[in-house]
Structure formats: structure tokens, C-alpha cells
Design goal:
Layout (H helix, E strand, L loop, with lengths): L12 H9 L6 H17 L3 H17 L3 H18 L2 H19 L2 H17 L3 H19 L2 H17 L3 H19 L2 H18 L5 H18 L2 H13 L5 H7 L1
């Protein structure tokens, strides 16, 4: 178990309007861009069939506009929808054979690295942990190091920790989260990522099952919960409260109410 930042699904009237009338645009490039935005909104609202159709139409429009990068982005959205449906083989095919080659041809190393991360996610979901680890370690991480992108590097390290957790390598997962991932967010002042990382450290400690880790687990979860409350991260706050209940840790607010 790890904490995922699910975010808040918020309605966007402007984008929903795009989802309805984007076909009225004459320019193929504009159709592609607006169609992609429409597909993203439909995806977020759970209308996967409509989202897939819009994304494919947008990819066709991008091809007509002779914009290979935009077409690759549209196809990436199609792959996201296949992932949401659990259609991992098709998602992997699109990522590997249609999306990645475009970024490689364009020399877009950042987009290639992001897409490789999504390929690793597919392998993770398929239980192919060694392949997911190989991609993260040898193909994605070096790109962010080369670019000097410390935040993306830290996020990728968190993904590596997820893989080690799934392999039962708890000490290595804890080492990465504590000594490599969390310090970056602390230095950047990234409150959201800090509280997610601290929660995941608490989960790893609880999974390891050492009695002496109990006080640290409580400290980490309560600190993460307070940060979520203070920053208005409602979805994360709810997830942390559920984790605290699972671990038998009283919510500080409930303790105040009973006192």
C-alpha cells in the first residue's frame, strides 16, 4: 500500500463546452488541440468511451495538421484511457510503438522520459517488477539527472521505492524515501509532495512491523495529516485519515472533540 495523490475532480464549464463544440473548428491544428482538451475532461468525468473517441479524432486532426508531437500527445491520452479500462496490452502497444518513437525522432528527451515512466507503470500493473525497475533506473532517472530536474528525479525515486515495496524490499524503499526523496521536497518547500512522502514512509515502517517504529509512524502520519488540513488538500486528508484508522491511530481532531 502507498498513498496516491488522487487530486480533486473539479468541474470546468469552459472545457466541458469544448467537449461539445470542438468539431465546429475549421483549422486541423486547433481541432486537435481542443479535441485533446475535450478528451481529457471526458476522461476525468469517467466518460471513457467518449473520451477515447475524442482523443482518436484529435490524433487524426493532428496528423492532418502535420504535427507529429501533438499527435503523439493525443495518442498518449488514448493510452491513458486504455490504462483506466485495464487494457494494459493496448496501452503498452501505443506507448511503445506510436508515442515513444515520435519523441525519439524529435529529440524530445523530457517527453520521452515521461512516457518511459508511463511504460514502467504498465509493467508495474502487469506485475513485471524487474522491467519496471530497469526502466526507471536505467532509462528515466538518468534523463532527469542530465536535465538537472531535481523534482522529477525525486518523483521517479518515489516510483522506485514503490517497486521495492512491491518486491518486499522494505529497507531499500525506506532508504530511498527517507534519504533521497523526502529531502528534495523539503528543500523545494513542496508541501504536497512532502506530506505524501511522509505518509508513504509511515506505511513502509508499519509494513515492516517493528514495535519500536510505532511512535515515528504516529508522528509522520499526524504531521502529514496536519499539513493536508492546513493546505486544504481535502482528498489527501481523507486518505490519510483512512490510513490512520487502519493503523489504529486516533485522529487528533477526534481526540480534541472527546476531551
Amino acid at each position: 500500500m502507498v498513498l496516491f495523490d488522487l487530486g480533486d475532480i473539479v468541474g470546468d464549464d469552459a472545457l466541458m463546452k469544448v467537449a461539445v463544440d470542438w468539431n465546429g473548428q475549421d483549422d486541423a491544428g486547433t481541432q486537435a488541440s481542443m479535441g485533446l482538451r475535450a478528451a481529457m475532461v471526458l476522461h476525468r468525468t469517467g466518460k471513457l468511451d467518449e473520451a477515447a473517441a475524442k482523443a482518436r479524432d484529435a490524433a487524426d486532426a493532428a496528423e492532418q495538421a502535420n504535427d507529429p508531437r501533438l499527435r503523439a500527445i493525443c495518442l498518449g491520452q488514448v493510452a491513458d484511457i486504455h490504462m483506466a479500462r485495464g487494457e494494459l496490452d493496448e496501452a503498452l502497444r501505443i506507448r511503445t510503438h506510436e508515442e515513444l518513437p515520435v519523441y525519439e525522432k524529435l529529440g524530445d528527451v523530457r517527453s520521452r522520459a515521461v512516457t518511459l515512466g508511463k511504460v514502467a507503470d504498465i509493467h508495474m500493473d502487469r506485475g513485471e517488477l524487474d522491467e519496471a525497475l530497469r526502466i526507471r533506473t536505467h532509462k528515466q532517472l538518468p534523463v532527469y539527472e542530465m536535465l538537472g530536474d531535481v523534482r522529477s528525479r525525486a518523483i521517479t525515486l518515489g516510483k522506485l521505492a514503490d517497486i521495492h515495496m512491491a518486491r518486499g524490499e522494505l529497507d531499500e524503499a525506506l532508504r530511498i524515501r527517507t534519504h533521497e526523496e523526502l529531502p528534495v521536497y523539503e528543500k523545494l518547500g513542496d508541501v504536497r509532495e512532502m506530506l505524501v512522502a511522509r505518509t508513504n514512509i509511515a506505511i513502509a515502517l508499519a509494513t515492516r512491523g517493528r514495535r519500536e517504529d510505532g511512535p515515528e509512524i504516529i508522528r509522520l502520519l499526524r504531521a502529514a495529516h496536519q499539513a493536508a488540513v492546513d493546505s486544504g488538500y481535502t482528498a489527501l486528508q481523507t486518505q490519510i485519515e483512512q490510513i490512520m484508522v487502519q493503523f489504529g491511530i486516533p485522529n487528533p481532531d477526534s481526540e480534541k472533540g472527546s476531551g
